[in-house]
Design brief:
206 residues; elongated; single chain; mainly alpha; 79% helix; Butyryl-CoA Dehydrogenase, subunit A, domain 3
Length: 206
């Protein structure tokens, strides 16, 4: 698991400029900031968790502007960061002495699922950047978009599968509660990112 996490940390560093440049920008310095926020709010209405969606993306309004591709890329980048953080947290629990054998196995499986999801999200991020480049034929454009949709959906499935391992009253306890709270959060963030990617795709497939 360590090599995979190391590789994903490297991938994250490649996408960090997308987040950091937006985070340090002064929103009030842009006359179009209000329009960008309105664009984000409007776009987030198509997601299952619109309030969370706006909260995750509002800080990057200057970078997103009113560009749907940048919106989708930023949503994926934010998701990647949060899933990476959650994966690292869950991985630490496998080394906790207080974790019971049955919990340990569930946590271990969860880490593997989240790791697979991270791989899918990293691939999606790279592919979405390719979608945004000019000069692509329509067939390749749609093919790459389909890849992104498939991979983000797979990441969401991995996150859900992680939680399935903690079903049943015999798994109730502090470990389950701590993991569930974090994984439910990242699953919602992933769901929102998928909705924004689907929104972008539907506008270009018609």
């Amino acid at each position: 698991m360590e090599p995979k996490l190391t590789h994903l940390c490297y991938c994250f560093l490649l996408f960090l400029p997308l987040l950091s440049q937006s985070a340090i920008a002064n929103p009030s310095s842009s006359p179009n900031h209000s329009n960008s926020i309105n664009f984000i709010v409007s776009s987030c209405r198509t997601t299952r968790y619109p309030t969370l969606c706006v909260k995750c993306l509002a800080a990057f309004a200057s970078k997103i502007s009113r560009n749907e591709n940048r919106l989708a890329q930023t949503a994926l980048a934010v998701t990647l960061v949060r899933v990476r953080s959650t994966t690292a947290y869950v991985a630490k629990l496998t080394k906790a002495r207080s974790v019971k054998r049955r919990e340990y196995l569930a946590v271990k499986d969860c880490v593997e699922n989240l790791g697979d999801g991270l791989t899918m999200l990293a691939q999606s991020m790279r592919e979405m950047k390719r979608v945004g480049r000019s000069g692509r034929g329509r067939q390749e454009f749609l093919w790459r978009l389909s890849n992104v949709e498939t991979w983000v959906s797979a990441a969401l499935t991995d996150e859900t599968t992680c939680l399935d391992g903690f079903d049943g009253k015999f798994m109730d306890g502090v470990v389950k509660m701590a993991i569930r709270r974090r994984v439910v959060h990242v699953a919602r963030v992933t769901s929102n990112a998928l909705a924004l990617v689907n929104r972008f795709a539907s506008r270009h497939k018609s």
